[in-house]
Amino acid sequence: MRAAAAAIAGLLLALAACSDSNEAPLVAEEILRLNERANRVAIGLEHYVASEGIRRAKVVADTAFFIEEESLIELRDMEVTFYDEDGKETTFLTAREGTYDWETGNMTARHDVVVVKREEGRRIETSVMYYERPEDRIWSDVRTTMYEEDGTIVEGTSFTSNSGMDRVELTEPSVIRRGSQPRSEE
Length: 186
What we know:
Elements: H1 2-19, H2 29-34, E1 40-51, E2 54-67, E3 72-83, E4 89-101, E5 107-117, E6 122-132, E7 137-140, E8 144-147, E9 153-156, E10 158-162, E11 169-171, E12 174-177
Antiparallel strand pairs: 1-2, 2-3, 3-4, 4-5, 5-6, 6-7, 6-8, 7-10, 8-9, 9-12, 10-11
Protein name: LPS export ABC transporter periplasmic protein LptC
Region (Disordered): 157-186
Organism: Candidatus Kutchimonas denitrificans
C-alpha cells in the first residue's frame, strides 16, 4: 500500500513539474484558427467612436480580431449603440459578425442583423447592414423587414436610413401586416 501511495505521489510531482515551465503560454489553437489573418485577438472588446469630442457610437464584441495591415477589426457577437450629435442614444444594433474599419469608422454587420430604435418601437432585421460614418448612413442591399410599434410589418428589397432611423426608406416596400390604427374621435 505504501509503495502504491509513493508511486502516485511521485507521478503527481512529475506531472506538476511538467506544467511548471518557463515557456510563455500560447494562444489556444482554436482561437488562432478562427481568423488566421489576425495580428491580435481581444476577448471582450468595448470601443467608443467620437467626433469632435462627442461620442457617436459604442462598439462591443465578444471577440475581436485585429488585422493591422488592413486597419480592420473582425468582430464576433457584436453590439453597437449609436448616438446623435448631442451624444444621446438613438439606436442599438446586434449581429453575429461584423467588420469595423478603424481608419474610416465604417462598419459592416453580418448574420442576424437587428437595429432597434427603442424610443419609437421600430426594428429593422436584415442579413447584412453597412454603416458609413462620414454620411451617418446605415443601409442594406438585401431583403429587409421593418417592424413598427403598432404591429405593422413591411418588407423591402433593401433600405437606407441615417443611424438614428429617423428617415427609413425601403426599396420596393410590401406591407405584410397592417398594425392597429387608433380610432378617430367623432
